[in-house]
Write a structure and sequence with these properties.
By secondary structure, this protein is α+β, with helices and mostly antiparallel strands. The protein is 55% helix and 14% strand. The longest helix is centred in the first third of the chain and has 21 residues.
Length: 208
Amino acid sequence: MAAQKDNTRFALAGAVVAAVVASLCCILPVVAVALGLTGFAASQFFERWRPELLGLTFALLAIGFYFGYRSRPQTCEPGSACEHTPVGRWNKLLLWLATAVVVVLAAFPYYSGWVAQAVAKTTQSSQVAAQAGEAHAVLKIEGMDCGACATLIQNNLVKIPGVRRAHVSFEKKQANIEYDPKAVQPSRFVKAVEEAGYEVAGQPEVRN
């Protein structure tokens, strides 16, 4: 019974760790936003391995269910102390708690944008009136894996002196930037995107 309990907990711990690693592609941008960093290049690496890591996650979870719910031979004498030890019940509770944690972690990329926006330190008004001498640049961005990536890039762009407003859309894979052309040039925006670990496709589209 002890060996079975250990196997169950090992499988569950492995499933949780694998789920965390599988979601690092979007966890790391949130951490970068919270710490005020430009980004983590390693997030691209974890995105490439996400399908395999998720497969490992749910395989380990299945192993945990197997050990947690398979029938055990009776090794205790009737009336003995071990007969009433509620190990199986606690193992099953741990199993379902671990399953909930794994599901939350595996789904993190789908709600990471909201989390990143909640921890973002840089705020800006969604309604900014156009000013004289203002220019507009559009950047096509490659490599974003989730909403957290867009929030990280946006957070970096609005910190650039001369940028009056920036909005990065994960769905459209692009950044829209309102800026003062006398204070900053579009090449600085490209550099900010690259510093975060992403790429700009083609040249920025600029309108005065």
